[in-house]
Amino acid sequence: MTSSTCRRKAGRNNSPYSRKDQTLDHFDYVDGTMHVEQVPMTEIAQQVGTPVYVYSTATLERHVGVFREGLSQLDNPLIAFAVKANPNAAVLATLAKLGLGADVVSGGELQRAVAAGIPADRIVFSGVGKTAEEMKLALELGIFQFNLESEPEAEMLSQVAESMGRKAPVAYRINPDVDAGTHAKISTGKSENKFGIPYDRALESYAAARDLPGLDVQGVAVHIGSQLTDLAPLEAAFVKVGALIAQLRAAGHDIRTADLGGGLGVPYDPSQPLPPSPADYGAMVTRVTQGWDARLMFEPGRVIVGNAGVLLSKVIRVKQGAQAPFVIVDAAMNDLMRPSLYDAWHDIRAVAPDGNRIASNVVGPVCETGDTFAMGRDMDVVAAGDLLTFMTAGAYGATMAGTYNSRSLTPEVLVWGDKWAVVRARPPIEALIAGDHIPDWVAG
């Protein structure tokens, strides 16, 4: 294991991006064994242990380039990576070097982004529950914009900003009541969702915000959901935003920014149609926003990091079930929550497949029936000790991990050509135990 300080290796795929290679990543088989860029997955498993998240720098770079190219017809857009998708410092620092800003939803994410080198003036603060302390921190750092989600939040920010002698640049997040057509738990733009203010109350809310001291009302924001596989809901929401911008300007508001959120889906299941590409998305945005005369902002997360990471796991044993064998792996629902939480699909591949396939149930060791990754999945035949990868796990993977069943948090590794480094170590279980405190009246 070495540090990433040498010149980048040659041989990276810099070919033009098109829809047909939308699934491209840098996890490939070389001589029958999966590699990440130029590093065998077996090497990482041997030296770090499993389960472990593994990220590819080349894939991060590619997806940033692809997304930026999709928006190339726009004038100076702000691309603010959704930190919640993957807050690892090394990942954020990589994206910072590529010129991305950050979309944050907590004071902790704000501090992570700044610590990783993302300039505060490229940071947008979203989220329904900002506290006064978080607002103060963001004002001290000088962030680009607060995306307000309620009138009481605007009033609190006004008080905080006025007490500091600052002006807070703000936009209201609008709830356009558009069904994103995605999983209910990651849909954010319907009237029953907790996010934003209702579209039909926007003019009233903006008028009240204009009268609040300490606020600079500069924009409009919208975000209708995550893992969208159809551009139609996004276009419907953006059309409503455009109409609102015109109404707000007619009412005397100086609207200079429009945050169109994120949500563009990525391909998880290879049997399903590909989601729209960033090029398709960019063409739609360019068409719909023509004439807006506002700086456009975007909050991509999954589309940047999803394909750039995998969860590497080892088979503990294979147990024969009533209909299909149970492949019991050392990764669990606390390492990768998405299948348990959303019934999400992740492609499961053997690191060294022998060409044989079988329908299997893939489960983890946690004492929950919900600790299940796949049932009846057609997959590589594996045996105890074999390595498996859960693909497209770079987004909403490690960031949602926990310590249920007193399991240690999953480590993370970043690869750069033939170099790799542990970018978050696996904490020993002793550290988890040491975090508890036994009161004197119990210990005594």
From TrEMBL:
Modified sites of kind N6-(pyridoxal phosphate)lysine: 84
Pfam families: Orn_Arg_deC_N, Orn_DAP_Arg_deC
Orn/DAP/Arg decarboxylase 2 C-terminal domain: residues covered: 53-394
A GO molecular-function descriptor: diaminopimelate decarboxylase activity
Binding site for pyridoxal 5'-phosphate: 263, 299-302, 396
Xref: CDD domains: PLPDE_III_DapDC (cd06828)
Cross-referenced HAMAP family: LysA
Protein keywords: Amino-acid biosynthesis, Decarboxylase, Lyase, Lysine biosynthesis, Pyridoxal phosphate
Domain annotation Orn/DAP/Arg decarboxylase 2 N-terminal: ranges: 72-305
Top-level taxon of the source organism: Bacteria
Protein's recorded name: Diaminopimelate decarboxylase
Cofactor: pyridoxal 5'-phosphate
Spans annotated as Disordered: 1-21
Binding positions for substrate per the UniProt entry: 302, 338, 342, 368, 396
Associated pathway: Amino-acid biosynthesis; L-lysine biosynthesis via DAP pathway; L-lysine from DL-2,6-diaminopimelate: step 1/1
Active-site feature positions: 367
Keyword Ion transport: no
